[in-house]
Design a protein that fits this description.
The chain is mainly beta and 113 residues long. The protein is 0% helix and 41% strand. Strand 1 and strand 2 form a beta hairpin.
């Protein structure tokens, strides 16, 4: 699912699969994020958490226990869910579970939408 948040200066579109920021445009419609092209690279801004790269044998050991962990961590293949969109005087926040909160600063020139 795609979620778009915006104010008078910027709009951001987030794909809930991996919580990827897939579009960031200014008020002149200039795009700042790589627009996915599966022939070159199908992602644009994946969340690589808690690791970048891979662990030896795709496992990590924490406190003596071995845990399987995929390359770049599980976030990029996790379907996130919108929890809340909050507006305040200076901030627009989008919270999506399980891990992520995105913020957009309020424009000084008018109200946010």
């Amino acid at each position: 699912m795609l979620i778009t948040i915006k104010n008078n200066n910027v709009s951001a579109t987030i794909d809930t699969m991996g919580a990827q920021l897939i579009s960031l445009k200014d008020n002149k419609n200039t795009e700042y994020i790589w627009q996915r092209n599966p022939d070159i690279w199908k992602n644009c801004s994946p969340i690589l958490f808690p690791i970048v790269g891979n662990c030896r044998n795709n496992k990590t050991i924490i406190n003596g226990c071995a845990y399987e962990i995929p390359k770049h961590g599980p976030c990029k293949t996790t379907e996130f869910h919108m929890k809340a969109i909050r507006f305040s005087d200076r901030l627009l926040s989008l919270s999506i579970s399980p891990y992520c909160t995105l913020h957009s600063a309020k424009s000084n020139s008018g109200s946010d939408t």
